[in-house]
Specification:
Layout (H helix, E strand, L loop, with lengths): L15 E3 L6 E3 L3 E5 L3 H6 L10 E5 L4 E2 L2 E3 L8 E3 L1 E7 L15 E8 L2 E2 H9 L5 H4 L5 E2 L4 E2 H4 L6 E6 L2 E7 L7 H8 L10 E3 L7 E2 L5 E6 L5 E5 L1
Parallel strand pairs: 3-15, 5-11, 6-18
Antiparallel strand pairs: 1-2, 3-4, 7-10, 7-16, 8-9, 8-15, 9-12, 13-14, 13-17, 17-18
The chain binds manganese (II) ion (MN).
Manganese (II) ion binds next to loops.
Length: about 230
C-alpha cells in the first residue's frame, strides 16, 4: 500500500482578517451575501422590493482581502462598488431561531461587494448564474473585525462609502429589509452555518462604477474603517 494520508499538494491556510483591537486574526470559512436588502437599492436596480424579498448568493473566501491595493479585475468595463455591513460568525448551526441568532456573532466589519455589473447584467438577462459577475479575485475586501464586546450589535447607524473624498453611498443600517438576526436565521435554513462564516448584509443605494486609481474609504459608525486603492 502506498501512503494515502499525506497531502498531494501543500496545504493552504484560510484567508484571515485582523481583529480590530487585538493581536488575533479571524479565519474566513465562507462568504454569504444578501441581495437587495435595502429598498432604495432594489429600486435603483429595477426591482420591486415589495414583490421580491431579499435573497442570497455566495463569493469565494479567497476573494476576501484586507487593506491595501486591489486590482481592477479582468473581463469588465463596469466594476461597481457596494458598501455593506459584514457579520463575522464565531458559531453556527442549523435552523437558528431569530431570538438566538446574535449569540453566533463574533463581530462586525465593513466590506465591499465589488461587482462586474456589465457581466452581471448580461448573465441576468440570459437567465444564467451571477457568479462571473460577483466572484472576481479580490472582490470582497473587508475591514478589521470589531468584536461584539467592543461594538455591541449595530442595528442602526450610518454606513458610507467615500471615493476620492466624495461620498458616493450613504445609508442607515436600520433600513435593511432583513436585519442581522433574520439573515442568520434564514440562512441557517439553507446551510449549516459555521464558525468563520462572513455575511455581507446588502448595500444601500448609490452603487456605481469605479476607476483605476480610485481611493476608497468604507465606514460604518462604531466599526473599524476600510481603506483601499484600486490599481
Ligand atoms: Mn451586495
Amino acid at each position: 500500500m502506498t501512503e494515502t494520508s499525506s497531502l498531494a499538494i501543500p496545504a493552504f491556510a484560510a484567508p484571515t482578517l485582523p481583529v480590530a483591537d487585538g493581536n488575533t486574526q479571524f479565519p474566513v470559512r465562507r462568504v454569504f451575501c444578501v441581495g437587495r436588502n435595502y429598498a432604495a437599492h432594489a429600486r435603483e436596480m429595477g426591482a420591486d422590493p415589495q414583490a421580491e424579498p431579499p435573497f442570497f448568493f455566495m463569493k469565494p473566501a479567497t476573494a476576501v482581502q484586507h487593506h491595501g491595493r486591489i486590482a481592477y479585475p479582468t473581463r469588465t468595463e463596469d466594476y461597481h462598488h457596494e458598501v455593506e455591513l459584514v457579520v463575522a460568525l464565531s458559531n453556527g448551526g442549523r435552523d437558528i431561531p431569530v431570538v438566538a441568532a446574535l449569540d453566533r456573532v463574533f463581530g462586525y466589519g465593513v466590506g465591499l461587494d465589488l461587482t462586474r455589473r456589465d457581466v452581471q447584467a448580461a448573465l441576468k438577462k440570459s437567465g444564467k448564474s451571477w457568479e462571473m459577475g460577483k466572484c472576481a479575485d479580490q472582490s470582497a475586501p473587508v475591514s478589521a473585525i470589531t468584536p461584539v464586546a467592543t461594538c455591541g450589535h449595530p442595528a442602526s447607524g450610518a454606513i458610507r462609502l467615500t471615493v476620492n473624498d466624495r461620498i458616493v453611498q450613504q445609508g442607515d443600517l436600520a433600513d435593511m429589509i432583513l436585519d442581522v438576526p433574520h439573515i442568520i436565521a434564514e440562512l441557517s435554513t439553507w446551510f449549516e452555518l459555521m464558525p468563520g462564516d462572513l455575511l455581507f448584509t446588502g448595500t444601500p443605494e448609490g452603487v456605481g462604477p469605479l476607476q483605476r486609481g480610485d481611493h476608497l474609504l468604507a465606514e460604518v459608525s462604531g466599526l473599524a474603517r476600510l481603506e483601499l486603492e484600486l490599481v
